[in-house]
Design goal:
39% helix, alpha/beta, eight-stranded mixed beta sheet, NAD, binds uridine-diphosphate-N-acetylglucosamine, globular, 360 residues, three-stranded mixed beta sheet, binds nicotinamide-adenine-dinucleotide, Rossmann fold
Length: 360
């Protein structure tokens, strides 16, 4: 029996594949590499010393997806695949609705056909819109501030409807807060295309000298120092949360929603200070106007995940900064050129092995 990981070459997916392999799960990965490199998976194989199959495949192609279910005895699916850039989603909403929603529908259709009914879905704290107060519990009202967020809301609804229609499904909707950091090896991490939108990759690129200075979006919010407050969570803690959700699903059916956050909020200036301390790098910054659509303050009530999944985020903010910095400083150009892309195009069910196998 194997766990299918969609979007497994991406930032959170690759860290989750690593933890799954470390815990002895068999995995099969599918990803169309639209926002990632297969090199991340080769490094996952390197770190764990394990092999697994990778399909360069678009979830929009239902027939191709079926071939994976024909070949493997899939037990559960962790569904990371999706487009995630908020600003881009405002400019090309149809692309976001089509990719994120249709690919999820295709996945569920194929799962249904092959009687695979355990699904962990990557949702986001963005579904809380602008919360009235903090900490944010799963019971808070939901709203979307942009097309990206709306795809998450729509998919959550689709999955709830699916369960109503067939109570044998077991579905976990995991609402992530702000994932940052990287595996302690510094060999896998976040590799955004172009200029980063999110705070931590922007800071790390300022630290290596790729970007001149950080723009701090607003300093007049009702927070500790006027800058925006977020619940930053180490990507490895987040990855481990998925495994706890899988454990729970093995003996429960239903649709359950969990916040995955630390329950603590840090301001932008606090993050800059923590990063400077662990990296010994100065981060020049200037205060600019607030970013449209930003909420002043957002952090989780993560007690449901603690009580029901037995999961708690353990890695603290300095470790998050240190790991983000180790990844960025060891890989100034991210994963660089991906030699595995052509390899995976030639061979749809590529076996991902460690580096001695793939010498380009
Ligand atoms: P990512 O872009 O690194 O990973 C997503 C992966 O999905 C990429 O490898 C991409 O190539 C793949 N993909 C996209 N569309 C696909 C398709 N049609 N078929 C096959 N593969 C496809 O993003 P991430 O940060 O690892 O996020 C993973 C999931 O978590 C996403 O659904 C995202 O919306 C959600 N999420 C992320 C954050 C965050 O801050 N990173 C926060 C909340 C929720
Ligand atoms: C952003 C998205 C959100 C998504 C989340 C995780 C927007 C409006 N929101 O949220 O939908 O779920 O990423 O991918 O894009 N900041 C700066 N300067 C920067 C970058 C960020 O000051 O260059 C500040 C922001 O104003 C915010 C904090 O840093 O206060 C964190 O920003 P970011 O990392 O982009 O995450 P979110 O705003 O939480």
């Amino acid at each position: 029996m194997a766990i299918l990981v969609t979007g497994g070459a991406g930032y959170i997916g690759s860290h989750t594949c690593l933890e799954l392999l470390n815990q002895g799960f068999d995995i099969v990965v599918v990803d169309n590499l639209i926002n990632s490199k297969a090199e991340s998976l080769r490094r996952v194989s390197d770190i764990t010393g394990k092999e697994f199959k990778f399909y360069k495949l678009d979830l929009l192609d239902e027939e191709l997806l079926e071939t994976v279910f024909i070949e493997y005895d899939i037990e559960s699916v962790i569904h990371f695949a999706g487009l995630k850039a908020v600003g881009e989603s405002v400019n090309v909403p149809l692309r976001y609705y089509y990719n994120n929603i249709i690919s999820t529908i295709n996945l569920c259709k194929v799962m249904n056909k092959f009687n695979v009914k355990n699904l962990v879905f990557s949702s986001s704290a963005t579904v809380y819109g602008t919360p009235d107060h903090v900490p944010i519990s799963e019971k808070f009202p939901l709203s979307a501030m942009n097309p990206y967020g709306r795809t998450k809301l729509v998919i959550e609804d689709i999955l709830r409807d699916l369960y109503v229609s067939d109570n044998s499904w077991s579905i976990s909707l995991l609402r992530y807060f702000n994932p940052i950091g990287a595996h302690e090896s510094g060999t896998i991490g976040e590799d955004p295309n172009g200029i980063p939108n999110n705070l931590m990759p922007y800071i790390t690129q300022v630290a290596i000298g790729k970007l001149k200075e950080l723009n701090v979006f607003g300093n007049n919010y009702p927070t500790v120092d006027g800058t925006g407050v977020r619940d930053y969570i180490h990507v490895v803690d987040l990855a481990l949360g998925h495994i706890k959700a899988l454990d729970k699903m093995s003996n429960h059916s239903g649709v359950e929603t969990f916040n995955l956050g630390t329950g603590k909020g840090y301001s932008v200036l606090e993050i800059i200070a923590a990063f400077e301390e662990v990296s010994m790098k100065e981060i020049p910054y200037k205060i600019v106007a607030p970013r449209q659509g930003d909420v002043p303050i957002c952090y989780a009530d993560a007690s449901k995940a603690q009580n029901e999944l037995g999961w708690v985020a353990e890695r603290e903010i300095k470790l998050m900064c240190m790991d983000a910095w180790r990844w960025q400083s060891q890989n100034p150009n991210g994963y660089g050129k991906d030699t595995l892309i052509t390899e995976s195009e030639k061979n749809p069910g590529l076996i991902i092995k460690s580096k001695d196998f793939f010498v380009s």
